Amino acid sequence: MASQKLTEYERKRLENIKRNEEMVAALKIRSKAAAAAKRQRTKSYKVNPVKKPKTETPVVIRRSLRTRGMPPDSKGLADDFCENYDKTPKSVSPLKPQPPRVLGPISMKDAYSGDEIEPNQMLIGTILSIAKDTHVDISVKKDIKEENFSEKRTLGSCKIEAFELPVKEEFDGKRGSFVKIEKSDPWLESLDLKPENVARIIPGRIMLVKFFPSSSMRMIAAGNKFGNIAFWNVDSKDDGIYLYRPHSGPISGILIQQHSMSKIYSSCYNGFIRLMDAEKELFDLVHSCDDTVYSLSQQPNDPASLYFGEGRGGLNVWDVRTGKSSKNWVLHEDRINTISFNSQNSNIMATCSTDGTACIWDLRSMSTHKPETLRTVSHHRAVYSAYFSPSGSSLATTSLDDNVGITSGANFENTNMIYHDNWTGRWISSGRWISSFRGIWGWDDSYIFIGNMKRGVDVISPAQRRTVMTLQSPEMSAIPCRFDDTLVRLGC
Fold first, then answer.
1. Strand order in 106-107's β-sheet?
2. Which regions are flagged for Basic residues bias (predicted)?
3. Which is higher by pLDDT, 37 or 147?
4. For range 32-46, the mean pLDDT
5. Are strands 394-399 and 403-408 parallel, antiparallel or unpaired?
6. What is the spatial distance between Cα 178 and Cα 326, in angstroms, rounded to a whole number?
7. Alpha carbon 489 to chain centroid distance?
8. Whole-angstrom distance, CA of residue 489 vs CA of residue 492
């Protein structure tokens, strides 16, 4: 058989292989490697067991708080966690460390997050000056409730002539019929967000915001997840921002009494309720418990009692005069997120819960052991808000099942669900959790205002059962989750 003819490349390759094998054989590399492998297989080591000392700490198996029957951890992120505020027109003072769970009063000076004492004294003087004017014009609120389309409406410093809205008919596919559709009120389209009315007043996620019920000055109080409460005097010539830390857990409630604005109640997830007394210049401890306080409210005609959701479905009525609980019930299977009282009858109360229900109660007929509801509104997922309308004739509920419920009627027998995307979840682009949406009423029963994930405010019409428009502004730098309608109800 004739030998194959090799190319120049193949011939050089064979020569290199032959030369390398001769070098390996001369160095005896393969024999040494085989001998080392044989020794490694035959050699063994005897390991003597080492007795562990009896004083060694035993291994603890980690168990979640839920399996141990304990409330969730409310510490959250580190206290120095803060977003980037370079693009905001106003900033906040740095956080001041505060020992957790101080069982006793805390002076406003010690709770103040700032190096200078002068701003703290300025806030105390401002609150005391507002508190002197305790006679708020209640008739303004009454006029707003009773006005009709032929009257004038007051929005801030602007008076807008209202008129009969044009009506047209559109086909509703779900109903299979034509329905009357009213165009939006002109004042909705004229609303504007000015740069001077935007400020970053508090670090971290805001849990709730409250307006001072005063028509003479615009003052705001807001609480975050770190236990801070910030006050912002919008009308101040300076930044007007004052930051305090009276709590060691997320703020769950802020109460500003209309006839005693120098005394402000606040609650947190750590089970504390404190009273900020501007006259005494301290945050006094009103109530403490081992359970979590999720919500805080008060009857309009009973300033001596506090209503707060405690633990899993519990509602506690606390008498601030005696420092004791006067009544307590278990109303839900899970935490109570909001407590609302009817403006026309303060004995009618609404609560909502993570168990997926919102309930209307009559305090006069609630038994101690098994209270019965006047009406139960059921959602498919957690309900994060339930608020009565200004007239008291309707109840608006906001749920994670992407619906805003409207319950109305003489006995609240009619419930309609209006679709709205309420799923906040996690804002992945910035790695921050967003507070749940809570729809609130305007100054009458015409509209419900609720935020959306596109940094806008959706306006829902209960009569039309749909979103009629969205308020947007380039000044809106964050997703609006929590609203307060105190100034709107006062006509300011």
1. 106-107, 282-288, 272-277, 263-268, 251-256
2. 38-52
3. 37
4. 60
5. antiparallel
6. 53
7. 22
8. 8
- Distance CA(314)–CA(308), nearest Å, equals 8
CB–CB of 313/332 below 8 Å?
A: yes
Cβ-contact 482, 209 below 8 angstroms: yes
Per-residue burial over 74-106, b if 16 or more Cβ lie within 10 Å, else e, is: bbbeebeebeeeeeeeeebbebbebeeebeeeb
Tens of pLDDT, residues 143-167: 444 443 333 332 232 222 222 334 4
Backbone angles phi, psi at 31, to 5 degrees: -65, -40
For residue 205, which phi and psi values (nearest 5 degrees)? -80, 130
Q: What size, in residues, is the chain?
A: 492
**3-state per-residue secondary structure call for the chain:** CCCCCCCHHHHHHHHHHHHHHHHHHHHCHHHHHHHHHHHHHHCCCCCCCCCCCCCCCCCCCCCCCCCCCCCCCCCCCCCCCCCCCCCCCCCCCCCCCCCCCCCCCEEHHHHECCCCCHHHHHHHHHHHHHHHCCCCCHHHHHHHHHCCCCCEEEECCEEEECCCCCEEEEEECCCCEEEEEECCCHHHHHCCCCHHHCCCCCCCCEEEEEECCCCCCCEEEEEECCCCEEEEECCCCCCCEEEECCCCCCEEEEEECCCCCCEEEEEECCCEEEEEECCCCEEEEEEECCCCEEEEECCCCCCCEEEEEECCCEEEEEECCCCEEEEEEECCCCCEEEEEECCCCCCEEEEEECCCEEEEEEHHHCCCCCCCCCEEEECCCCEEEEEECCCCCEEEEEECCCEEEEEECCCCCEEEEEECCCCCCEECCCCEECCCCCCEECCCCCCEEEECCCCCEEEEECCCCEEEEEECCCCCCCCCCCCCCHHHHHCC
The four Cα atoms 426, 428, 433, 439 give a dihedral, to 10 degrees, of -60
Alpha-carbon span 44 to 451, nearest angstrom? 71
β-pairing, 314-319 vs 324-330, is antiparallel
Contact 328, 314 (CB under 8 A): yes
pLDDT confidence bin for 45, thresholds 50/70/90: very low
Q: What are phi and psi of 233, to 5 degrees?
A: -85, 100
Q: Comparing C-alpha atoms, which of 349, 251, 345, 335 is closest to residue 298? A: 349
Neighbours of 121 (CB within 10 A): 14
Q: How far apart are CA 146 and CA 175, in angstroms?
A: 32
Tell me the one-letter amino acid at 114: G
